[in-house]
Amino acid sequence: LFFFFQSGNSFHVFDQGQFAKEVLPKYFKHNNMASFVRQLNMYGFRKVVHIEQGGLVKPEKDDTEFQHPYFIRGQEHLLENIKRKVTSVSSIKNEDIKVRQDNVTKLLTDIQVMKGKQESMDSKLMAMK
C-alpha cells in the first residue's frame, strides 16, 4: 500500500521507491519522487513534520506524509481550490523595478570609473617601462 489517508486531511507514501516505480508512471510522465514532491509543493501541499522528529531527524521508516488545507476526505468540492502557484511579472512592484534599474545604473557607472583607472594605470606603467 503506497497511499494512505490516515485522519482524512493528509496522505502518506510508505515506500517511496516502490511508489516512484509503480504508481508515478501511471499518472505522470516520470518516475522521479523528487519531481513529484516539487509538484506537490507547487500546488501548496506541505510535508508534515511530526514534533517527535523535531524536523531534524529523518523518520526510521520510509514514510512521508503530505497535507493541504483543501485536501480533506469527503470534501471533494474543496479540490477546485487547489491550484498551482504562479508568480507573474505583474506581481513585481514598480518600486522594485526602479530599485533594480538604479542598481544596474550604479554598477555600470562603477565599471566605467574602474576602466578609466585601469587605463590610467596602464599608461603610467608603460611610461615607467
UniProtKB/TrEMBL annotation:
Protein origin, superkingdom: Eukaryota
Record lineage: Eukaryota, Metazoa, Chordata, Craniata, Vertebrata
Name of the protein this chain belongs to: HSF1 protein
Location relative to the cell: Nucleus
Main location: nucleus
Natural source organism: Caloenas nicobarica (Nicobar pigeon)
Gene Ontology MF annotations: core promoter sequence-specific DNA binding; DNA-binding transcription factor activity; protein homodimerization activity
Similarity remark: Belongs to the HSF family.
A cellular component term, taken from the record's GO annotations: nucleus
Domain HSF-type DNA-binding, chain residue ranges per copy: 24-48
Keyword vocabulary terms for this entry: Activator, DNA-binding, Nucleus, Stress response, Transcription, Transcription regulation
Classification via PROSITE patterns: HSF_DOMAIN
A Pfam family recorded for this sequence: HSF_DNA-bind
PANTHER family xrefs: HEAT SHOCK FACTOR PROTEIN 1 (PTHR10015:SF274), HEAT SHOCK TRANSCRIPTION FACTOR (PTHR10015)
Keyword Cytoplasm carried by entry: no
Gene3D superfamilies: Winged helix-like DNA-binding domain superfamily/Winged helix DNA-binding domain
